[in-house]
Amino acid sequence: xxxxxxxxxxxxxxxxxxxxxxxxxxxxxxxxxxxxxxxxxxxxxxxxxxxxxxxxxxxxxxxxxxxxxxxxxxxxxxxxxxxxxxxxxxxxxxxxxxxxxxxxxxxxxxxxxxxxxxxxxxxxxxxxxxxxxxxxxxxxxxxxxxxxxxxxxxxxxxxxxxxxxxxxxxxxxxxxxxxxxxxxxxxxxxxxxxxxxxxxxxxxxxxxxxxxxxxxxxxxxxxxxxxxxxxxxxxxxxxxxxxxxxxxxxxxxxxxxxxxxxxxxxxxxxxxxxxxxxxxxxxxxxxxxxxxxxxxxxxxxxxxxxxxxxxxxxxxxxxxxxxxxxxxxxxxxxxxxxxxxxxxxxxxxxxxxxxxxxxxxxxxxxxxxxxxxxxxxx
Length: 378
Description:
- It comes from Roseovarius rhodophyticola.
- Keywords: 2Fe-2S, Dioxygenase, Iron, Iron-sulfur, Metal-binding, Oxidoreductase.
- One of its GO terms (molecular function) is dioxygenase activity.
- The chain is an alpha+beta fold.
- The chain has helices at 27-38, 159-162, 166-173, 194-201, 212-220, 311-339, 361-377; strands spanning 42-46, 56-62, 65-71, 77-81, 96-98, 102-103, 110-111, 117-119, 138-144, 147-151, 181-190, 227-230, 234-240, 247-248, 251-252, 262-268, 272-276, 283-292, 295-304.
- The chain contains seven helices and 19 strands.
- The strands form four sheets. It has a seven-stranded antiparallel sheet with strand order 1-10-9-4-3-2-5, with no helix packed on it. Strands 11-19-18-17-16-13-12 form a seven-stranded antiparallel sheet, with helices on both faces.
């Protein structure tokens, strides 16, 4: 692949022009992103309470790679490549489950929860067969900010090194993280490039200017303090509500429990977002997994403490699912179509000197991370 494909003219911050449009549909660039970014990234797996008992597991797919995250009999959480070590059959096809052992549906090779090969029919007939050499291949796992993450790359830097300060920031926003449980999860495939979705989600320039739910969001946010802040490989977007606010989503703000008084999107590069809506008793996940140059798998999750749902929390979920989310998806779709136009290649970021709530400096920062990963990988 020639270096010219990654050229990004006029990228200096104060007068920067956006990534060339080919970054959002070129198969060669997408293939490079798979190798340089996503195969080496830390990926969100689950909350520990999702696999609370020995044998409970979740499966996460990243392109052609599939990973099992499972609670062992010793209480430890481990991850393994989801593939039998006999003939390469995909071992588990379910998203979630609860097992005593993992049994391959092809030839019944059986693995313990620690990945060890427990049984393999007729291998006693093989000379020198050593079961200890045919266990499942391990994948790196870390606990970070109350959740479980995995990395396919053995030499990846620890998350605390890659995202300094991010864990403490998150835990301050979510005091009930240890008690959180998955309330609901929804998957969808959106026919756009993954960066289109991230770009839309990390700038507030469009919030007061697009659909009715976005304008409603602007009505309760204090935009003078709603600032995108770039912190290296992680960044935040959000701020407090307007002074004197007494209701949200048509529901009075009362004495019900909540996580934070701040609206906040908390991002880890490349595409993991957890976010908070003020006065709601939940933390939401927004996981972006590209599946093609112009196709992205998106997984939304709601995690709530183990107590009755509050009225504002319920109203917020309805508002997100039925209003704000669909408005953003529609914007994603029309942007992807426009990026293919012969009449467009680069635009101008709206980056003001104040780095205000409406500035797109976080989008420029994100594009720099993508560009840097691609060019350093060559």
